[in-house]
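Notebook entry, structure prediction.
Reason for the run: the old model in the group folder had no record of what sequence produced it. Starting over properly, with the input documented here first.
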Amino acid sequence: MGQSDSLPVKINEDGTDQLEVKGYQVHRGRCALACLAVLLTFGLLLILLVWRKDIKMWMFYKECPLQHASKILVKDSFGVFFEEDAQEERCGPILQPKTRFFVNKRVKYVWDIETLEFTRLQCYDANIECLSFHENPDGLNMQDVNERQQKYGANFIRITMRPVYHLILKEVFRM
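New structure, fully documented this time:
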């Protein structure tokens, strides 16, 4: 299920978080014309470009297949547009190709080489039965741990603590 240049590709068609995605690459000619238009409108065009991501993508970028895209225009089920960066990272051994992905609303979508489309990254234990935890009581080896940490990110919750004097000053000025 590849992608044509004119139609958006749908992701999660059966889910509640259905998305339509299109790929874009920077086009220098369009970028120069858009900068000229911003100058001629004394910057007022920037207001429109901030509100309407689809117009911004049309003015600065050229549509391309998703596998070659540097920017991705995402339209959610409510009709809201999001502009996301297509990123690459290496997961696993050095000989494996880089993994392409983008993140939208804190959900990571990974490029699937076989189907030529982005798919939502599944939980690391999505296809694992509880019995498999008992079969391997020592846990994962370090290579698997490193691969999963690269793929899913670090397993921690970051909590920022404000200093006590900051909280006291905030309460004093609130009175």
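Summary: Residues 52 and 81 are 8 Å apart (CA to CA).
The old model has been moved to the deprecated folder.
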